[in-house]
Amino acid sequence: MNGWILAAAVVLGGGVGATVWGVATGPLRRRVVAQNLCTAFACPALLLLSQGYDRPSYVDLALVLALLGPVGTLVFARLLADELAADPPSAWGLTYAAAAVGAVVVPALCVATGPSRAMAKLLVVGALLIGGNLLASRALSGAFPEVRRG
Fold it and tell me: 92 in helix, strand or coil?
């Protein structure tokens, strides 16, 4: 086991484990936030596993997850807008923590990879991961009231 795999195990065990528990229990507002954060923690874990096992295809999985995860959260925000309007979720601390995990993992992997096409792909994944997570969290907190009107 190398350091990359150990870091992935910490991210998966701590971040994804906690968010799976949040999705399985609690009120609706906690479940939708946990669903959003699960993507934000699983994507850096895939990037770390890609480096640890020397499997570049895992970066493609992380790219798809970074792209489709926030889209799924936006769909949930739209479909559950009426239920969430009465008690909007607010988890900015967790959102910033998940963004910080991505902001630490992506540059570390860029340094390990070196200048190449793979580094450009890592930077795209990082931008999608952080930007999508922040946008989806903002949508969940009710910051886009026009969504409720349809």
Answer: helix
